[in-house]
């Protein structure tokens, strides 16, 4: 979501443009900045730094303001979400378990640390997929597709990568996970499944030095 298109009820990562006696003014990218009153700050903010906020209506002025107490406005009814569903994510903070995200500008979810294969930061927005809705309504999210559909998609990525490299690439089980993600945008686990599928179909050969198109 573009910052200049913010509406009531939206969640966003905004930077502090100025601190005044009324509170902090946040840069929305539009002509008018957004006020984050002191009463709506969960911690002291600093000029130039970014924070996750919700856009709400001030009861006295009936004008839009920001609040850092955004979790009060999260929809906890996740019954309409479905496993495998593609969603938009906004990374809000990190915990010992992984990265907490806001899903489709409405719900809250978690990406476990072992499911994060690239460098991500608070405020990043990216696509993801619902992995599971637990019995307590909590939502687990992944960045990559899961299951057979994911393998089929990943095999296409590997095939295209080999074609782009004249049919051979020095990449395989010996390659570091970070390199695989940088080159193919997938985890090493997903890469190995895709390679296994392609090998069974006799579309590639696996050598000591890499992968070769058949």
Describe the protein's architecture and organization:
By secondary structure, this protein is α+β, with helices and mostly antiparallel strands. It has 3 domains: 3-72, OB fold (Dihydrolipoamide Acetyltransferase, E2P), CATH 2.40.50; 74-142, OB fold (Dihydrolipoamide Acetyltransferase, E2P) (Beta Barrel); 147-213, Arc Repressor Mutant, subunit A (Orthogonal Bundle). It is 18% helix and 34% strand. The chain contains 3 helices and 13 strands, in the order ββββββββββαβααββ. It has helices spanning 147-164, 177-184, 188-200, and strands spanning 11-19, 23-27, 34-37, 50-57, 64-67, 86-94, 98-103, 107-112, 125-133, 139-142, 168-169, 204-206, 211-213. The strands form 3 sheets. The chain has a 5-stranded antiparallel beta sheet with strand order 3-2-1-4-5, with no helix packed on it. A 5-stranded mixed barrel has the order 6-7-8-10-9. A 3-stranded antiparallel beta sheet has the order 11-13-12. A hairpin with a 4-residue loop joins strand 12 and strand 13. Helix 1 crosses helix 3. The longest helix is centred in the last third of the chain and has 18 residues, at 147-164. It is elongated, with a radius of gyration of 22 Å. The model has no long low-confidence stretch (mean pLDDT 90).
């Amino acid at each position: 979501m573009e910052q200049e298109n913010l509406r009531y009820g939206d969640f966003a990562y905004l930077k502090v443009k100025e601190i005044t006696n009324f509170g902090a003014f946040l840069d929305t990218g539009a002509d008018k900045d957004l006020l984050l009153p002191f009463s709506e700050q969960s911690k002291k903010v600093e000029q130039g730094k970014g924070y996750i906020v919700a856009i709400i209506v001030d009861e006295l002025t009936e004008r839009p303001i920001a609040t850092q107490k955004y979790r009060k406005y999260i929809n906890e009814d996740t019954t309409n979400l479905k496993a495998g569903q593609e969603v938009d994510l906004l990374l809000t903070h990190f915990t010992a378990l992984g990265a907490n995200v806001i899903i489709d500008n409405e719900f809250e979810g978690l990406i476990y640390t072992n499911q994060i294969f690239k460098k991500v930061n608070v405020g990043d927005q990216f696509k993801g997929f619902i992995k599971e809705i637990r019995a307590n309504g909590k939502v687990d999210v992944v960045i990559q597709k899961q299951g057979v559909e994911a393998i089929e998609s990943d095999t296409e990525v590997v095939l295209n990568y080999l074609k782009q490299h004249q049919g051979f690439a020095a990449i395989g089980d010996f390659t570091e996970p970070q390199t695989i993600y940088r080159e193919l945008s997938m985890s090493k686990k997903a890469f190995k499944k895709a390679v296994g599928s392609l090998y069974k179909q006799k579309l590639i050969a696996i050598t000591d030095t890499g992968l070769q198109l058949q």
